[in-house]
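ok so i was messing around last nite and threw this chain in just to see what happens. nothing serious, just curious
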Amino acid sequence: MRVYNNLSCGIISTAQALVFPKLTNVMVNTGGNKKTAWKTHNQLQHKRIRIIVLSSAVGGYGSYYEYIKAEGLMPFYVSCCYKAKEMHLDRFYRAVAPALVNVGFCKGEEARAERLSKKNTRWRKFQFPMLEYTREQCEKILRANDVQAVSSYCWFCPKGPNPPEWAIKSLKARANANKV
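result:
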């Protein structure tokens, strides 16, 4: 069974790539990856960390972002996770099956790991080697390797710190629809 690291280029997944430098990392280009994620990606490649970047092509569009913009859809956290990343990762892991996938959850995220473990299949199993590390320990790993990373999310995520106005409207519209 081959082992891979899921990579978002955030703090924990980047630390995971550095802790397990011989493993291949798999990342998805959602069309909304922040510039800081690509900077981290380049720093890892410079250190000879192997990274496969998958396309998030959906509905005939080159990326998830192109899809939602062209179709007039609004980003929504749960559907974004699935359509922007999960279905593409699942397709990849099914193609290389069986696969053991390291996911970068750190200490304090045990509940997230437990929920994701319930999605194990016969062709893809998740494991969480970074659960023994705190976020601060992960940041220390980055500093020791002279790699910068920040929290990762799509730049247009309505749950991010500075979403564009059209994404905020999407979040408000969804909240109002749930009140009805």
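not much to say yet. The longest helix spans residues 77-95.
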